[in-house]
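Final report, Chapter 2: Outcomes

The project's central promise was a pipeline that accepts a single protein chain and returns its three-dimensional structure in a standardized token representation, suitable for archiving and comparison. That pipeline is now operational. To close this chapter, we reproduce one record exactly as it appears in the project archive, with the input sequence first and the structure output second.
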Amino acid sequence: MIPAAVVLAGSRGGTDPVASHAGVSDKALIELAGTTMLARVLRALDEAGIVNVAVAANAPGVIAEAEQHGANRLPAAAGPSASTAEALATLGAPLLVTTGDHALLQPKWIRQFLADVPREADVAVLLARREAVEQAAPGSRRTYLRFADGDWSGCNLFLLATPKAEAAVRLWQAVERDRKRPWRIVGRLGPGLLLRYLMGRLSLSEAIAALGRRAGITAAVVECRDGLAAVDVDKPSDLDFVRAYLAGQPTAA
């Protein structure tokens, strides 16, 4: 079954440093090789065969850009998890979730991700190993999760495969609320798994599966073959990297 998709492109309020760096009102409207970041994401989804696409946005310029490229509009909620909850309630499952700053998103990543999601999964997340990211995107500084089976970076692609994935979104909302209290986030693993993590004996897939069980769902990690998928535009240096990459210039630091 071909999923619907939501592109998270809401504003968090205040001045976005990346938009300011690029001299535009909203990050999703930054032009790269003559095309806005949002339009690049929408084109990748279209070429991957995703036909029912909505953009969660609240800025007039972003809404106009989404509608110009044939996407539906959903009002952006207070944060990414709340916007995803609204999208799941509106569009239903299966629902593919990505972001408006996934500037290098490629159709093949989307197709491969959907093909690799285990059939029994209620929710799945795409991640790439550090080695793959550093090979594909030398000089790009990413955030990594350290586990027994390596260091991993998120690829801004999630699949809410069944209606039960609503529980995962609720967990995400709780994590967002606790983002300034990291001990609460880590504590959700439970003392046994937390001890294994601190000892360097917990794999990423084990951690994700355990969090899923606590939410009453089956959660899975899908490994991305192309480390470039981990590159999004969270800070001005990311934008500089993406521009250099698209221009075919050396990107190594």
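Archive annotation: The chain has one domain: 4-165+219-245.
This record, like all others produced under the grant, will remain available to the consortium after the project formally closes.
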